[in-house]
Amino acid sequence: MSHSEDCLFCKIVNGEIPSAKVYEDDYVYAFLDISQVTKGHTLIIPKDHFKDIYETPSDVAAQLFNRVPIVAKAIKEAYQPIGLNVLNNNEEPAGQSVFHIHIHLIPRYGKGDGFG
Ligand code: 5GP
Ligand code: ZN
């Protein structure tokens, strides 16, 4: 399993930093975002370390994006939002702050839910 020593999300995958798990399989790990833009805000990451969409091989990206519906359904069931945004930030000007590729799933609850 390739990982980067200094990467926060690699440490989360390895269990060195605690996280609230939403979903896990051999390829991906999903956990609650520490900042919770809205209730149930979740991140999905590949277990292997890749910086962003440009450095992620297509087969890894396929596994990662393939899991989005599974995690989306788990969130819908757990939190019963009325909508859901799926988002991937690449490079700092686009809002990326952790440089291990991740997909945000942001449940929506209507006007004033804190996002958008
Ligand atoms: P980005 O800004 O790179 O698209 O998203 C990184 C996300 O990681 C942010 O929403 C931020 O709240 C979240 N985050 C940063 N540090 C931690 C942490 O230690 N644990 C968890 N669960 N999320 C984190
Ligand atoms: Zn990493």
UniProtKB/TrEMBL annotation:
The active site is at residue 102. Coiled coil: none annotated. GO terms for biological process: nucleotide metabolic process. A motif (Histidine triad motif) lies at residues 100-104. This is HIT domain-containing protein. GO terms for molecular function: catalytic activity. Residues 8-116 form the HIT domain. It comes from Aquibacillus halophilus.
